[in-house]
Design goal:
The complex is a heterodimer of chains A (about 140) and B (about 90). Chain A has about 140 residues and is an alpha+beta fold. Chain A is built from 5 helices and 6 strands. In chain A, strand 2 and strand 3 form a beta hairpin. The chains are: A alpha+beta (about 140), B alpha+beta (about 90). Chains A and B meet through strand 1, strand 2, helix 1 and helix 3 of A and helix 1 and strand 1 of B.
Chain lengths: ~140, ~90
Amino acid sequence: MDGPGSQSQTPAQAPKTCPSAPPEVGSVLLGVVTAPGQVAYLNPHPPVTPRLLEALAGKGAPVENRVRFACQCAEGGCVQWKDEAGSGRCGLIDHALEALAITEAPRTLPRCGIRNTCRWYAQHGANACGACPEVIRRPERD
Amino acid sequence: MSEHKFTYTVSGVNLSNEQKTAISQAIAAVVAEVLMGDDPGGFRADSLVLHRIYGGIWQRVADLEQFEKGDPLAVQLPKLAGGVERG
């Protein structure tokens, strides 16, 4: 059953998905970082469970360094959010695109299962897909 | 862009939703484990060399290094311990 007001929501107003979510129950597995700047996107996205996190952590590498997760964008509840909830934007992808000097979209896009609702895609279109594989939640220290 | 699709079929038994969920998650875990490989080291994100997420905030590395050297008053890191990190 749809929630209140859900039928009147436009795609732009629909809840967005964060492609750089924390590894916790409530998130889904988006992909695996197979090399710097390269993510193997998985479809479908399995929900994160303690068992899954345990299995991933068993590989030795920090989970947040090697695996990408997605969850519903928390908007104003996230420190990356700029401005007010409902009218703001994700500051993380803005910074990433600027740091990477990305001004054009990749020629081909991966089969990413969250694109329709992706917060970063909603803000920057396919340009965001160029920065997405570069993002690692916990970059290795020098 | 390369794509690889794997299909597994279980027939002859009635699986419960719990079993189907468990199998799906187990497959996903194995796929992720294989993709992660056996290298226990972490990757460095070159794009984050100049900026690094710290305390949920995107910070200049130069500021972070100064902060971490024990001179927190020298650098004003906004909302250093505040907020909830999601992204």
